[in-house]
Design a protein that fits this description.
The chain is of the alpha+beta class. Helices cover 16% and strands 30% of the residues. The protein is built from five helices and 13 strands. The strands form four sheets. Strands 2-13-12-9-10 form a five-stranded mixed β-sheet, with no helix packed on it. It has a four-stranded antiparallel β-sheet with strand order 8-5-4-11. The protein is globular.
């Protein structure tokens, strides 16, 4: 999900704060597990991170109401939406899809899932990321414009939800470039941390 924190909308200067929610997709091979290396991708000189709360779907559904949306959630994780920002901005400027900027190999690191039975449904808590031990993004998930039930419901009216789907829910302000050798640590209060290393240019 794009543009779900006001501060990030303002720092990117790309849309109106009142725009409706929108979604884009990443391929299955975008997933990278915690502890692994993310290669610096080709065709970019501006490789950036976005820390996000991830919703894991455990029950298939279509056109799900907000009142029933949480019934479809299996658990939660910390994720990073890795972005070729220069390519994303070029695409937006030319009215083209975002895929080259967002949907590429190893672009969606994801921490270990914690089940709803373990952690409940997350409605508040700190979300943050550090690079080489220095804080870069630091906010709280209650600042999301669209909350978890709203996100699940709205997405289900556009696509069938399937078991195993992962929904990345948008990022707070503070996105920035990373470089080979950088170590990123993403956190959401109550969840397992996510740590990745940026590898050599591929």
């Amino acid at each position: 999900m794009g543009r779900n924190y006001l501060e990030h909308i303002r720092e990117m200067k790309e849309s109106d704060e009142r725009d409706p929610p929108f979604f884009f997709q990443k391929p299955r091979d975008a997933i990278v597990l915690s502890g692994q290396t993310v290669p610096y991708p080709p065709q970019t000189e501006d490789f950036q991170f976005e820390v996000e709360l991830v919703i894991a779907i455990g029950k298939a559904g279509r056109s799900v109401s907000q009142e029933r949306a949480l019934d479809h959630v299996f658990g939660y994780a910390v994720g990073l939406d890795m972005t070729r920002r220069d390519r994303q901005r070029e695409s937006g400027k030319n009215g083209l899809p975002w895929e080259i900027g967002k949907s590429f190999d190893a672009s969606a690191p994801c921490g270990n899932l914690r089940t709803v039975a373990e952690v409940g449904h997350l409605q508040s808590g700190r979300i943050a990321v550090s690079v080489n031990g220095q804080s870069k993004q630091d906010s709280v998930i209650e600042k999301m414009i669209w909350n978890v039930p709203e996100i699940v419901s709205k997405l289900s009216h556009a696509y069938d939800l399937a078991e195993g789907d992962l929904i990345y829910t948008g990022t707070p302000a503070g996105v920035a470039p990373v470089f080979p050798g950088d170590v990123l640590r993403g956190t959401v209060q109550g969840l397992s941390n996510l740590e990745i290393t940026i590898g050599a240019r591929s």
